[in-house]
């Protein structure tokens, strides 16, 4: 619940813990990118290993509000609750809790708390805490705090968890306290990041009250005392703000905090709530998916979309952590799944956010150049997992070896450009990223005599982490080919049409004409492993040579396999965590004939454990395309409820944001049958059991398209709500849409 | 020098540090198997990883003798030395140092120290320290100590080094001190091993002296004061003893120490030295190799043999650490190289020692059974590196994945039985080891449809650690085949001829007849990768598909590659640390036609960096067999001087004992052309540049054979010095040797 009810805006995240502080699985207030570093110590080390660990750390917790009635603490774990309700309102962006506390004395107290993390004001969060004495007088004391939190607990033996620190991480730097306000400043021990956080309070109640500031360097604390009268409501509004930096002095941050609190105080909780509602209104207007016929599915779809938005809305200059800001899992690191699983949603609903995330990668380019040198490559090698741009993966086989992240980033870049038409970005940041990644691929692979002179890439790990350090991972080679081609094509286009920019690039990167030709040649001669006898693409050169996995004798509690079998056992078997061939058939769907897709899917699907949360959404899309509708819907439902039903038994570590992005794709690409190769949008709607209809919105080249699919009628309606005209495809037909004029077409439901 | 001048007897080792304590690279007194344990912490952990580290630790240093003349300390780093000589006498087993100290005052003092670690009395070491005032009177004070040593320093980024501990490892438990004697008892912090060590002193000098015992729990210390007169010699004999245990109380160990010191005192240094000389006389009589024509080579050969003996003579129930007891490298662990590189020497010169080491493996069988379960195998899986029987490798790709160690142990077992005829050992311990290792192989591999139903073994690492976690490593498959065959053949033989024993085995291990048939079938259908086009065996399925290594642009200081390139870079290239196909062609030489050997060698030799110290000796043997004599002798010389010339730049960590065993093989199997497949000994002498003649001894089935090869005459003489009759081969001729009757045959020199 602490994860599912987490609030976040992409900059600041607060887990759904109770104000009163207990009971708690894992507290957490997180700022995107606010991390501690530590030396990675390997029991057996080797050259080129990642040296510096990076771990997102808890900032001081501002949600704490302790209530005392008759000097007795309100303890949720012990109290008699006459009513209890908790609501995450995805329309207003507010987490609300309403309880009635029945004391032994017969006194009843209603406690209503509301919490928000503002989308509009990214540094601000707020809590409204109302205490109503329902049937008797009583003294009320409320202690509102801002406290340093213990560090996150480690998850033993599970690489998906986070890390504990032996020493205190946040070193207090100072305090400003006055009236209802307290601002703490602090610094991380090793990474030397600075932080100011503050709280301010507004009290609303009939009659008098007393407000006392008891803050110290170690803790902000404001004490509110009221001699409550039956029927009276005491409302405490708590305004919170956080400001972090890698460079700024804490005093400057404290000033920012001061100003932010002042503004927030001016708005009050209700003003912030109104802004929140309006912000989300705009969001849902462009990003909602309405599902007809299954109210639970509808709710799950929106829950997934809401959490993607919470993870991405205000990342601004930062990346998007695997768990968003809902938990400490994966240490707050940024992975490839941002680009492959989350960016499609952003590109089509909030292209500016997609651009921000791509710019963030661009700013990591120098670190990636350095990393490439460390592992003997030219160009740039983006890290498998990172916060600050340096490789932080401490297990290269499922880390640095996943070179495909470079092609994934470029794939997302090109998708972004195709859909938005943002050629300025392509020519500036994009061109440099293309050059350096193409160089990396060119130096990584080689023309192999054994493969008839084709271009081979050895010793890499694809998205499927159950087969590591393999030769010619098909996904990697296919995506690298796209990367090389995109680089060659784009640079040729710049050379032809923007000679000044080309000259600039040549100057800055040493780019030569022959290099571009080399990329094109490597792409043209890219080797893609294929087995003629079986008629399938091979996940890698050796995939068919592996020992079959004994699925029949693997019990349900032995999944995920990675928690129950030594990596060597998994790696030597014909078993898959996520089917990366299937992913390739989705991303590069236009390059595979349908029957090839079927043969590949039929082969790989039974071998796929889905132990990766990234698996089911893609399986769903392909299953839908191949007409396996029940299977597709089953996979989709699994994806949609992955966190809500905690299918992976680790939701405590945070939401699987990429999987959530995957579910959006499973609906839009799967159920609605959208395809967008080369930026041209087409639809082949399918729906499926229990889904009667679907309505969703896509932004393309600044135009807003609404798609409404009616299962019973077997009719799809396309409406260009904004824009000047858009050409799309429905089945094999080309539709020229004009703004405001819906076009309906039939499909076979 | 501290490594090269180390003294050891297989139980106790003392590095060649100076008595006076400085200067020191790394102190070290080591007891075989006396280790501390620690939890292995992985930055990214996974199921089945080794959990407990094991590190050999320094026992208290008893060599310390500080000399003061005129109350001025004798400091080797500062003193003016008029003479300095240090000698490791490999005939007497004594390390001697003779210096003349010229003081500023004009006084000259001769200091002569001699040190031994007794082969006869494995718990005893002794130092004779003589101080002679050459030209003037002076007060002499000698402080003789027994002190706890700081732990070994870590070698950053080099997995071949050892480990430092944050906390003190040895916890003092008690002290007995009286007169010239002090006994300290101690216990390791975590592994709870107990130790008693003691020193006793005998003073010989004209005139009076004063002996004062200043020992404490933390340090044994005895102070000798003499008012020295010109011409007078003061001789201090220091007797040392060490007794460790996993179970015994320290008080019991202290009693043992007491008794050992008493016995040693009875013998005195000279008595111990006489015993040492006699013991080595017997050893050299059976193990010496005389090389004619190259005195430096002669010395290097004997140096290597001497250190093997120091590592193995009194291991008794323990294993043989990779560095013997000459340094802390590889943490005092036991590896496969004991069986493959050292056992041949022991089998042919001291078969009882070979038997002890095989028994030691047998005693680890239960731990190996447990380890097999952890990684999903049946039978037993011996650990890649260990002291206490548990897997201690913290990098599975070059650790647990090296399943071949199981076949290596069995190979040595069968070689031992063939050469000694010790069928009792085979039927008792051996049979059980055969059963459990064969089971492991049977469950590890599978009949692969892709390989026409042949038996394949995937996801393993061969001896070559530059290609890890590969499919069908040829060395592994070939050796596994031998293992399976040996198990099937031996168990069939026991079933036929020793039904009671067979019933016992069936009862103890659940062995069934069908299992034996399964082993035979797996062996018969074992897949061995071979490339028809190239006409060579493949190191593994993918070896030919790798990217060529750019040897031309690899500078000398980039070797060993493992210290300069990320593992991924090395693994994806066509480059070899040690050629395991070549090793297989040596061990199983009778199964490869000569021309096949040539094609394989010609292909792999240029790809072999020799970054493993285990490489050159085997390359030498095959080069010799193929007639590449210059290359063979070059490799042999490289091996012989590996530590003497510190070719691998890490002799400070200890001698490469397995490489030393390899040099013995390179002489006997290479230069003398011995082969012994199936236990039948044949010779095909070749000699080579600068080697005029060779004389060595082999023990087979209790008989002692001396082989004398005369290069100039082109004549080999075989003499059965002990025994009743032995049939050997010379070239294609069978020779029936009778005791005392030399037989000479010509060969083409």
Largest interface: A-B, 55 and 55 residues
Unreliably modeled segments of chain A: none
Helix content of chain A: 25-40%
> How do the strands of the widest beta sheet of chain A line up side by side?
8-9-10-11-18-15-14-13
Q: What is the number of helical segments of chain A per DSSP (H or I, 4+ residues)?
A: 16
Strand element count of chain A: 32
Judged by helices, strands and strand pairing, the structural class of chain A is alpha+beta
Rounded to an integer, what's the Rg of chain A over CA atoms? 27 Å
Mean pLDDT score of chain A:
95
* Shape type of chain A: globular
Beta-strand portion of chain A reads 15-25%
N/C terminus separation of chain A: 38 Å
Sheet bearing the most strands of chain A, described? 8 strands, antiparallel
| Quaternary class | homodimer
